[in-house]
Amino acid sequence: MLTYSFTDIGSDSLYHHLYQCIRSDILSGKLASGEKLPSKRSFAKNLGVSNITVENAYAQLLAEGYISSVPKKGYYVREISGMIPSAGVNTENRPQQDISKKRCVADFVSNRINPEQFPFSIWAKLLRETLLNYHEELLEAPPWGGVLKLRHAISAHLKAFRNMDVSEEQIIIGAGTEYLYGLLIQLLGRDKVYAVENPGYHKIAQIYESNGVQCCFIPVGKTGMDVGELEKSACHVAHISPSHHFPTGIVTPVGARYELLGWATREEGRYIIEDDYDSEFRLVGKPIPTLQSIDRSERVIYMNTFTKTLASTIRISYMVLPGHLLEEFQKRLSFYSCTVSNFEQYTLARFIEEGYFEKHINRMRTYYRRIRDELVTAIRKSPLASCCEIAEEDAGLHFLLRMDTGLSDEELLHRAESAGIRLSALAQYYRNPAENVPRHTFIVNYSGFAGQEAANVVKMLAKCIFCG
Amino acid sequence: MLTYSFTDIGSDSLYHHLYQCIRSDILSGKLASGEKLPSKRSFAKNLGVSNITVENAYAQLLAEGYISSVPKKGYYVREISGMIPSAGVNTENRPQQDISKKRCVADFVSNRINPEQFPFSIWAKLLRETLLNYHEELLEAPPWGGVLKLRHAISAHLKAFRNMDVSEEQIIIGAGTEYLYGLLIQLLGRDKVYAVENPGYHKIAQIYESNGVQCCFIPVGKTGMDVGELEKSACHVAHISPSHHFPTGIVTPVGARYELLGWATREEGRYIIEDDYDSEFRLVGKPIPTLQSIDRSERVIYMNTFTKTLASTIRISYMVLPGHLLEEFQKRLSFYSCTVSNFEQYTLARFIEEGYFEKHINRMRTYYRRIRDELVTAIRKSPLASCCEIAEEDAGLHFLLRMDTGLSDEELLHRAESAGIRLSALAQYYRNPAENVPRHTFIVNYSGFAGQEAANVVKMLAKCIFCG
Fold first, then answer.
1. How close does chain A come to B120, measured CA to CA in Å?
2. pLDDT digits (tens, 9 = 90+) for B39-48
3. Taking 60 as the threshold, does the pLDDT of residue A48 lie above it?
4. How many C-beta atoms surround the C-beta of residue A160 within 10 A?
5. Predicted pLDDT at B52
C-alpha cells in the first residue's frame, strides 16, 4: 500500500500534507491514471492517521480533479494530461510549499495551539450536559447581544481578572473580533477615520480598508501609539492594543493610557477601541488597569476573544460598549442576530462559571512560561548570546530577538527557512517600510512551539547565521 | 414561596416571563426592598422550570439593578425608589409586552422552531463522537471557506436535493446569511446598487443600508421581482428569493427565471443573489431548478442556511460563488477567518453525510404539512370560509389569508392581538406603502404553531373579526 511519512511536516496540516504527497505522485506519474487508491479506512490505519485526514485529502483531490470517485467501488487516479488547474490551486506556490513542508522544524510564525493543551474532556462533559438539560434555551433566539448566561459569566470574569465593572448588558458576543470590527464600523460610522498601529497586525487595517473606510497608520513609540501623532492626524477612532502590542510587545504604561484617554475626550465623537487580545498571558508583574476601567467619559470600547485562550477554531469574541453606544447599537444594529451558536455560548458560560476557564488559563500560563524559559535559556547559552538581545519577553506569547548581524533581514529569514525555522521580522509589520524601520529584529511567537528541543533549534539558528 | 403561572405566555421566553413577573412585583411593592428571593434551585423546582430559566431571570434583574447578590447568601430585592432605568429597559414598552404576554394563544409571526422537533439525541451523539475522534482537526484553522468535510457534504446534498453541480471549493461557510451579505458587499463593491424585493424581508434592506450601500426597492409582480422595473433601474445586483418569496409566497416560474438571468447577462458586473432560504420545505410538486443551476454565465450567487432546517440558534449558512468571484474572493477577502466553530462544522458534516439531515427534513416536512392541513381545514370549516381566500399554501412555512372585510388592517391586527393571536399583514412588508398595496391580506407563519387546537384558534379569529 501507498505509504508517506508524516514526520517533520512542521506547521502543515496532516490532511494537506497527505494531499500534497498524493498529488505529487500523480503529477510525477508514480501513481498512474486509472490506478485505484487505498480505501479510506485501511489507508488511515496504515498511515497511523485518522479517517478524516484521509477523507479530507481525498475530498480536496476530488475537488481539484486529480482523482474520481466510483460509487461503492472507491477512488481512482484520473487522466490528468491537459488538466486545467481549478481556481483553488495555485501551482506557482508549490515549490515554496514543498520547501517549508520538507524542512520545517520550528514554526515561530503561526498562531496554532498545541492540541494536547485543549481541555477536551471537560469541554465534552459540559457540552453533553448542556445538550441534555437546556433543550428550550438552546433553541430560543438569544437577545441580540448574545446569551445572557454567557454575558453574565464574562462580566464576573472581567471583574475578577481585570477589575472591570461591566454589566452583562454592555457585553456583545460575536463570532470573532473580525466580525465585531465590522459591526463597530457600522456603529461608529464610515465617515470616521480609523487610526491603526504602525507597526501592527495587518488584518486590522485590511478589515477597515475592505469595508471602505479610511484608515491612517500612526507610529508606535516607546509607550504604544504616539499620542502626538494621533493628535496631529484627522483620526476619530484609535484602534490599539495597550496591554500587549503586536509585534513590538510594548505594554502601554498608565501615564500614556491617560494621555490616550485625554486625546479621546478632547473632541466629540472620538473613541478608542481597546483590543485586549492576549492579556491573560502576561507572565510576570501586576496587570495594568485597562483603558476601559479608567475611562470616565464613555470613550472606550473594550474587546477580547476566546480564540487565543481556548482555541482559535471556537469563534467566540466579545466587546464591551459604553452606555450611550449601547443605546445607539440597540437602536440601529440590534436587528442583527447573534452570530455564535447557542450550544457553544451555554457551554462556554458554564466553562467560565464553574472555574474551568481560570484553571485552564493558569495551566496555559505555566506551560507557555516553561516554553519561553527554555527558549530564552537556550539562546543565552548559545553562540547567539554574544550578538543578540532579547526584548519584551514578559507579556503575551512572543518576544523579540534583536540580532547584531551584517545580514539583511531577507537573507536571515531565508537562511532560517532553509534550515526549517519559520520566523518573521519586525520590519514586515510596518506599513510602507521607511528608513527608520528597525532592522535585524525578529519575532519569536512560541504559541505553536511544541515537542522540539529548544537548544537544538537555537543551535541550528545560530549555525545558519554564522555559517550561512 | 413565590409562584407564577407559565401558561399562556405565548411567544415570550420562560426566563423573560419570569423576569417580568418578579420585576412587576418589585415595582408594585409586593416584593419589598430587602426581601430575600428563593434560591435558584428550589425556585426552579417549585415553578417546574429549569435552573437556567431562573438563573437568566435573576441575571437580568441583577443587571438592571432590581435585585442584589450577596455571596454565599443569595439574592435580595433592592431599594428601588429613584432608581434610574438602565439602557436595556424600555419601560414604555411594558404595557404592550404585558398584553401579548397575558393573552397570546397563537403566534403566527415569529420563526421559532418547536424544541420537540430538534434531533437532540442524534446531534449529541455526533458531537460526542466528533469531540472524541477529531482532536487535531478540531483545533486546526480551517481553510477560509470553511471545513472541507462540511463543504463536501453540502456539495453532495446540493447535487442530490437541488441537482446543482457545485464543487466544495465554491462553497463558503459563514455564521448566518446576515454575515454572508456583509461579505458579498465587500466582494461585489459598495459602488453597486442593490435591488431588493418590495414587499420583502426588511432585514435584507436594513443590512445594505447599515453597510452604507445604495439599495433600490423593486416591485414583486406575479412571478417574482419585476424584470421590467429592474431593467429600468440603475441596479447592478438583484437580491431575490425565487423558490419562495417572503411574504407573498410566490414561486418564480422557469420562464421568469430565464428573464432574470437575461437581465444579469445583458451588462457587465450584474449579479443575482439567489436566496434559497426555505426551499427544503416545499410541500407539493416538483422543485423548479435553481437559478444557479441554469446559469451559464457565472452571474448567480446561491445562498442557503441551516437556521431554518435545523435550528435558528445554530448559526451555519453558506453561499456558492461562481468561479471568477471565487478567485476575487480568494485574492481580496480570504484573510477573514471562517466565523463558524470547527466543532459544529464537523458535526453538521457528519449529520448530512450519514443521512440524518435528509431524514430530518422529511420528518419536518410531514410535520409542517400536518400543521398546515389542520389550519387550512379549520379555516375552510369555520365562518371565515365565506369571506376569505387561502393562497400560496404549498411552499415554505407560511400561507396568505385574504379577508373580505370592512375592517382596516390595523383594526383587524389589533383585534386579533387582543384575542391573543399574533398575525402580520402583507402591507407591513412594503417599503413606503402606497395606494396599490394589497390590504386585508395576512401572513400565517405556522413554523412556531404547536400544541394548540387549530379549530379553536380559527374560531377565535373569526369571532374577533365578526364581533369585534
1. 7
2. 888 898 888 8
3. yes
4. 10
5. 82
Instruction: For B438-459, write each residue's pLDDT tens digit.
Output: 889 999 999 878 766 888 999 9
How many other C-beta atoms are found inside a 10 Å radius of the C-beta of residue B51?
15
| Cα B67 to Cα A335: distance, rounded to the nearest angstrom | 29
* Residue B392: predicted pLDDT: 78
For residue B363, give Cα distances in angstroms to A26, A135, B127: 44, 19, 21
- Per-position b or e across B326-355, b if 16+ CB within 10 A of its CB: beebbeebeebbbbbbbbbbbbbbbbbbee
ipTM > 0.95, yes or no: no
Question: What pLDDT shows up at residue B64?
Answer: 63
At a CB cut-off of 8 Å and minimum separation 6, what does B127 contact?
A127, A128, A131, B343, B347
Q: Report the residue from A59, A136, A152 with minimal CB separation from B59.
A: A152
Cα gap A254→A293, rounded to integer Å? 12
B212 vs A contacts (CB less than 8 Å): 186, 190, 212
> Hey, what long-range contacts does B255-259 have (CB within 8 A, 24 or more apart)?
B255/B223, B256/B223, B256/B224, B256/B227, B257/B288, B257/B289, B257/B291, B257/B294, B258/B294, B259/B227
According to DSSP, residue B128 is labeled H
CA distance A351 to A122: 8
Q: Do A313 and B203 touch (CB under 8 A)?
A: no
Are A14 and B141 an interchain contact pair (Cβ–Cβ within 8 Å)? no
Give CA–CA dist B246/B387, Å, rounded: 24
Q: Taking CB atoms and an 8 Å limit, are B168 and A63 in contact across chains?
A: yes
Averaged pLDDT of chain B: 87
Best residue of A330, A341, A344, A447 to probe chain B, by most B CBs closer than 10 Å = A341
pLDDT digits (tens, 9 = 90+) for A52-88: 888 888 877 776 667 888 877 888 888 765 443 333 3
| Predicted local distance difference test score (pLDDT) of residue A86 | 35
User: Is A342 in Cβ contact with B314 (below 8 Å)?
Assistant: yes
**A178 and B337 Cβ atoms separated by less than 8 Å:** yes
The pLDDT of residue B69 is above 50: yes
| Mutate which: A140, A209, A310, vs B, most B CBs within 10 A | A140
Q: How far is CA B391 from CA A65, B245, B308, B399, in A?
A: 47, 13, 22, 6
pTM: 0.79
More confident residue, B317 or A33: B317
Question: How close is the nearest chain B Cα to the Cα of A187, in Å?
Answer: 9
Q: What is the pLDDT of residue B285?
A: 65
**What are the cell numbers at A151?**
454575558
Min Cα separation A454/chain B (Å): 23
Cβ within 8 Å, pair A211-B186: yes
Closest approach of A270 to chain B, Cα-based (Å):
20
